[in-house]
Amino acid sequence: MSRPENPTPASTNVPFLVLPENRFAFEALTSIGEEPTRPIYLYGPSGTGKTHLVRHGIRKFVSRNPQARVQNVTAAEFAAEFAAASSRKSIRLFQAATRDFELVVIEDLQTLDRSRETQIQLLALCDELAASGCQVVWTSRNAAGELTQFSRKLVSRFRAGVTARIRQPGPGSRQQLLEHFALSRQIALPAEAAQKLAAGLAVSPRELWAVLTQVDAIAQHHRRPVDSDLVRRFLRHEVLAPQPRLEDVCRAVARQFGVKPAQLRSRQQSRAAVLPRQCAMLIARQLSGRSLKQIGRFFGNRDHSTVIHACRRLKSQAPYDAELRLNLAQIEALLGAPDRGAE
Questions:
Q1: pTM for the complete prediction?
Q2: Three-state SS for 219?
């Protein structure tokens, strides 16, 4: 049960901004490892920064414990690896591999609401990690008490330590976030314009990042500054962000997955580029306005049927793969597309 920490988009490379809506959660995640026998359960709506905060907590923990072994997976990945071990009749090896860490983080618990066998395995893991003194961090879109399809014993384990909630930001916090994002991206955003955007859009931090990308793209397209008049027209839908070019999609996907744009456009079928290329094809189809033929030609001179296959495959996989949904949402945010509720 191991994977490298995913490359993160620019929005999660920006320092975490502590606000009233996330202050307690920030303090809890910053203190990871100080009381390892107390698990941390972090929850909040999609796009509010749970993954960003988890990465912050892991970095703090590793800085204090440079030799510690850390595991960070999504619940969907845990379930998939358990299913694979079960099919290979190697569950004991799987169990042994999951229990030799000082910090274990499992994200997006809500995806396991109907996976009874995986929940049983997760319960056993909870108890063994607690007995060994390992720090465990859970994240979910829902409060523990709202996980009605989970066993009562497992829910009680989630509630056994610190429960930290991240709420959607209020108007003042939204303005601070917009100004914070603008500063990190060197976008001139007057306070009045930021205030108008914050008041007009009751959305998540991830959506605010996407909105700022859209407004900046509009300003560049019309060769004008981001000001109150532009924001007013944007909120009234009088101006629209230009559709991303295929080159923009390619760069955003390459950045998300930590590969080179040239790999996505190559005819070669390297394993590292297959999933990113399929994601690029899907997002290009949804956002760029280009035809299947144009998309296929751009990404390695492939046939339009390859693009259709990639889009169908990812659309069928996304409902069951939280990591895929997160990657797609973060790429879309980089391109200025609205948040679709992915975790």
A1: 0.75
A2: helix
